[in-house]
Design a protein that fits this description.
Elements: E1 4-5, E2 15-20, E3 24-31, H1 37-42, H2 48-58, E4 66-79, E5 82-98
Parallel strand pairs: 1-4
Antiparallel strand pairs: 2-5, 3-5, 4-5
Length: 100
């Protein structure tokens, strides 16, 4: 089942919420400084931002088909091995149904 992500707090007209689950959160680290040759060769070539959104959707409990109130917060940190962007996602998993 696909899980939809919504930044809104209330559902659009024509939908109703039938179940609410506890809030979920994920944190992802993305290197944003210069990437060396070895890192390029071993990288998966995927979009790390999409991977973070997919991880949030994947962390929804069974039965949830949407996450509402999705919020993103970011922070950067500088270390000896580079500069990293941290993505903090939170949201509330819900089960929604379209009204007939």
């Amino acid at each position: 089942m696909q899980t939809h992500l919504y930044t809104l707090q209330t559902l659009p007209e024509g939908f109703k919420c039938t179940r609410i689950f506890p809030m979920i959160q994920i944190v992802r680290q993305i290197k944003i400084s210069h990437i060396g040759l070895l890192e390029r060769l071993t990288s998966s070539g995927t979009d790390p931002y999409q991977e973070a959104r997919d991880a949030l959707a994947g962390s929804a409990p069974e039965g949830a088909n949407a996450i509402i109130g999705v919020q993103l917060s970011t922070s950067t940190q500088h270390f000896n091995n580079g500069t990293f962007l941290y993505l903090f996602y939170i949201g509330t998993p819900v089960t929604i149904e379209e009204l007939a």
